[in-house]
Structures are given as structure tokens and as C-alpha cells.
Amino acid sequence: MRQKVQGLLMVFTLLTTSMVFAADTYTIDPNHTSFAFMAKHMMISNVPGEFDKFSGTITYSPTDLANSNANVSIDVSSINTRIDKRDAHLKSPDFFDAAKFPTITFVSTKFTPTAITGNLTMKGVTKEVTIPVTISGPVNEMGHQAIGITGSVTINRQDYGINWNKVLDQGGVAVSNDILITISIEADQK
What we know:
The chain is mainly β. About 15% of the residues lie in helices and about 50% in strands. It has an 8-stranded antiparallel β-barrel.
């Protein structure tokens, strides 16, 4: 009898341990996700933009964040500031050089309840960034699980070799170095 009880306890321990450390994989939903940015123009106004094409997966375990990760790829040629001429300039070698560097990537290295740290690669340069985030879910959405991740971080574009600028007559610059990046992700379990 004692061996039966020990055997049942061992099975129960294995099952509950595997449930605690289980991580589910979610695919980014392009219909409910945005990767946006904002740059100060001529030091007087903010110009918004976003990327329209992207993909990625998030492996998420709410009970074991060390077992969570994110892998995102953004198509640089999908940049959209609603001004075709500006978008063409942003795709040029002056900024992103989309022909030579067609993707921006983010690969996480650490999840915490309030931040995701990872390697952001733009224009062939990789830097570690920490994005303060809010993680929502998982929730049951129309028969499947979904999670949400929202957050923002400010980066210096020159750290990534995006150096073009024009000095204004008044001594300022046309485009700020600090760029606010905002993410709003919904990802569905597949």
C-alpha cells in the first residue's frame, strides 16, 4: 500500500511540475497588433509611423517566465507614415536602407512580469533593449487562448547607424535622435 501511495505521489508531482513549467506558443495576430514609432520633427512636432507587415511568435508561461520568449520580425519596406515621399526616404540608405537590411528583428533574452529584455537588430546593428510592458492574459478568445503585450521604449536611432539629419537654420535638427517605439501585440495560441 505504501508503494502505491508513493507511486501516486510521484505521478502527481510530475504532472503538476510539468503544468507549472509548461509554456504555450502564440502567433502574433496582424489584425490586432501594431509596431509604431514617433520622432520629433524640427523639434516642434511629433511625426508618427508604423510598420504594416510583421510576424512572430511568443512562447509564454505565466507561472515560469524564465521559460518564456519572443521572436519578432518586421518588414522594413512596410514602413508607413502616410506620406509616400517620406516613406521612400526612410527606406533609403539615409535611414533604414531597406534594400540591404530588409528586416528589423527582436529576440528576447529575458521576461519579467513588467519588462521584456532582448536583442533589437536594425540596419545590421544589434543592441540589447529592455521594454517595460504589461502582459495580459492568457484569456479564452472564441475557442482559443490569446495574450496581449503592450509597452513602449525610447531608443537612440544613431545607436543603430541611422544617422541622417539636416541642421536647421535656427541651429536645431530636422529629426530627433530619440525615437519612441510603441508595441501593442495580440497573439493567438495555435
